[in-house]
């Protein structure tokens, strides 16, 4: 089992009272509510938290990309990953991911990821995503072509990384007379590719394909969805005629650890609910712009609309397995149970979320790293030995 | 009111649903109605009224309503070439094209390519141009009931429309229309940055119609369009939003009828 410390870098100093009447923190909340000094302090703090992940024994650290939102201050994960590249020595750095279709020149991603991979001597993990629906409003890229652009950009990047010398690429959305990227990636043939998703059959069929076998990450979802989609990936591998390795699967989940269950729930509640119900929430029109998802999947949307855009309490989220919260022992038990059932190699813990302040984040990180992680590693090792 | 009859024809490899009705024969002018982003559903009643006077053809655009979504439909130009094929396929001549909103944009994209089979254009709240002075409404950001409220001035009419629950079939078509609209108009948002360069090629009479309270394309869009089409007339309908055919049908019908009658009269005298 491998542990990755995943950070969203929210603008936690958002004036929640003053912005409460905006339907969403995405795009519609004006950036006049952003303060440069507070932003600078938050970047310093968050980058420090990720750097501390290495000292605490995490295998990796992870950043991601979102635009025009207090939900995350990383419109370019290239910048945060670059800032971390020289401040860390051993951890993998995962960009989860770069939103390929948003780029008009995805060849720049082939260059930027290759640079970070080289600077870190092969510690980069390349995540490839389409970006969430809101990004298509912010960025203007047509959601109707999101899938096409994703696949084309992926093919272009892989070609740039694997075809030696000078080649050309001609697609419907991207055209390059010359593809000849300097530097080439440090890892051969290229950095591992991870595909974070909220769950979609098309994505799973694509990622699991024997040609690719990309790591599939189920992001922040009820445990039932995590089970459903990780199983869908495994089943898809079988249909392709091979057995899924555990290290093709991962799960990203917010976690909070404190001295006791009661303290954990009490301390985390407001900060988690700010994350879920203030920073993350958006209207359906922004979440699912036309063409972003298949027309079939839109049919059930009206029925589940309340569940998607409504508020969820911390308690309900804990019950639904969207949020792991409690004493070190409770958190260990829950995660071990999930791991035994789903056998995901990669656990991506989001140990800061919403407005969770520095002191509580540090406490939870320490407890997780010292009292949860070693026991889970031991359990996974024992299980591997037993299997031999 | 004259009923329209539904037919399915295959044009450019696309199974296309169209409705046609009204007087046929040489004396009846043919009117091709190009619907807006909301689809042909909200046009049908108005088209039936027009069919009292005209040979009305109301197609579902490729990708919309009951027409197929063809693999080649990527942008507004594809829609324009499709309609040039349709005019040829149906062997239509001297056609009066009426376009609402997105349909008005398609009408212009057709006409800059060829007016060979076109006699005139009526453009209602037409998309197609950007404006530096006015900001368009973002229909993709409006939730469905807000969208109707923003498109109609008379809120009691909006209440009435919103009180009717769509059938499953209508709901499915609404999603389909939304998807097709995004393909054509998401980016750039409801305009073609190159269209204005070629609007001078439209060498047939043009009547522009605009609601004075249009929140999707506020009136400055209509005034700008009129400046780009020398010789065109702009008629502003008071107390009217983005859908004159829904909200001010009688007034809009009178404008269309008067405009076409004046042209046909001119044609007969020649």
Give your account of this protein's structure:
- The complex is a heterodimer of chains A (388) and B (270).
- An eight-stranded parallel barrel of chain A has the order 1-2-3-4-7-8-9-11, surrounded by seven helices.
- The mean pLDDT of chain A is 96.
- By secondary structure, chain A is α/β, with parallel strands linked by helices.
- In chain A, 46% of the residues lie in helices and 15% in strands.
- With 270 residues, chain B is of the alpha/beta class.
- Chain B has a single domain (5-269), classed as Rossmann fold.
- In chain B, strands 1-2-4-3-5-6-7-8 form an eight-stranded mixed β-sheet, sandwiched between helices.
- In chain B, helix 2 crosses helix 3 (102-113).
- The A-B interface holds A 136-137, 140-145, 172, 283-286, 289-291, 295, 298-299, 302 and B 74, 140-143, 171-172, 175-176, 178-179, 181-183, 186-187, 189.
Brief overview:
The complex is a heterodimer of chains A (388) and B (270). With 388 residues, chain A is α/β, with parallel strands linked by helices.
What is the N-to-C succession of helices and strands of chain B?
A: EEEHEHEHEHHHEHEHH
Q: Report, as a whole number of angstroms, the end-to-end distance of chain A.
A: 16 Å
The amount of beta strand of chain B, in percent, is 15-25%
CATH architecture of chain A: Alpha-Beta Barrel
Mean pLDDT across every amino acid position of chain A: 96
Give the termini separation of chain B. Answer: 31 Å
Biggest sheet statistics of chain B: 8 strands, mixed
Largest interface, counted by CB within 8 Å of the partner chain's CB: A-B, 20 and 17 residues
The H-level CATH homologous superfamily of chain B, spelled out, is Alpha/Beta hydrolase fold, catalytic domain
Identify the quaternary structure here.
heterodimer
The biggest sheet of chain A, with number of strands, parallel, antiparallel or mixed sense and barrel status, is: 8 strands, parallel, barrel
Number of helices of chain B: 9
Number of DSSP strands of chain A? 11
